[in-house]
């Protein structure tokens, strides 16, 4: 069984493939070929965002990949994200009407009639957070988004939606890996049937975001501890990346690995030919270090 065939339910009509292809930090020079290669390798889930500034080239790669593999739009799950604005950056929070316009603009750039999942990228909307969420529910009702959710939201942001009596998100995309396990947030999400989607699953790798301009937020202690998973990976005969990604899907999270290397793309999709045993899962459960490092944009609760 492959990651493109295994799915997690988001709502009664929509299920998300367990392994998606992430496009954060993929340049416009690389995105078309990368997406085409990912679809050829077997990925059926592509994750992008307006904030990544590569939607047009990602969309071109989607069209080329579907054509090359003889697939239809319905064969692919595509996630896009609203940039909600951020007052701390002099960027006014989007209104409900602007949220609809932003989704339309993303669809236009991607060359798609709908996305399978549309997320609010971060809880920066402040007083407009609920207005933005209502707009996403409208997008879902209109068929422009088959499912809707949030990203980087904590318990208080989710409680705000519940307190307003609105339908809860189908998903919350958050940083999840053995060093950032978020048990409290995940338990809260489970109570509301909010599916977790993991990003930055590969933070514990020594190679995570070490390229120039990628601004790794790792501490020296983390860098020194970057070999923690090597022995486990050798035991299963897999890469450390496969081990970390398998940890996510074994816990029930969709994961979003990214690589420009076709061989590594295939490897990252091959998470179902092995499973992590109970003893190693228990050991990994002891490695939690708190909130994580990937989302270093200040306090998102304001």
Q: How far is the N terminus from the C terminus?
A: 43 Å
Number of strands: 10
Low-confidence stretches: 296-302
* Beta-strand content estimate: 5-15%
User: What is the average per-residue confidence, as pLDDT, rounded to a whole number?
Assistant: 91
Strand order of the largest sheet: 3-4-5-6-7-8-9-10
Oligomer: single chain
Apparent shape: globular
Q: Indicate the radius of gyration in whole angstroms.
A: 18 Å
Helix-strand makeup class: alpha/beta
Distinct helical segment count: 11
| Biggest beta-sheet profile | 8 strands, parallel
Structure description:
The protein has 302 residues and is α/β, with parallel strands linked by helices. 38% of the residues lie in helices and 12% in strands. It is built from 11 helices and 10 strands. The strands form 2 sheets. Strands 3-4-5-6-7-8-9-10 form an 8-stranded parallel beta sheet. A two-stranded antiparallel ribbon has the order 1-2. Helix 2 packs across helix 3. The chain is globular.
Descriptors:
38% helix, two-stranded antiparallel ribbon, alpha/beta, 11 helices
Secondary structure: elements and pairs:
Layout: E1 7-9, E2 15-17, E3 21-22, H1 28-41, E4 45-47, H2 55-69, E5 77-82, H3 96-110, E6 117-120, H4 129-142, E7 148-151, H5 155-163, E8 171-175, H6 183-191, E9 195-199, H7 220-224, H8 230-236, H9 240-250, E10 254-255, H10 262-269, H11 278-285
Parallel strand pairs: 3-4, 4-5, 5-6, 6-7, 7-8, 8-9, 9-10
Antiparallel strand pairs: 1-2
Helix pairs in contact: 1-2, 1-10, 2-3, 3-4, 8-9
Concise structural overview:
This protein has 11 helices and 10 strands. The protein has helices at residues 28-41, 55-69, 96-110, 129-142, 155-163, 183-191, 220-224, 230-236, 240-250, 262-269, 278-285; strands at 7-9, 15-17, 21-22, 45-47, 77-82, 117-120, 148-151, 171-175, 195-199, 254-255. The longest helix has 15 residues, at 55-69.
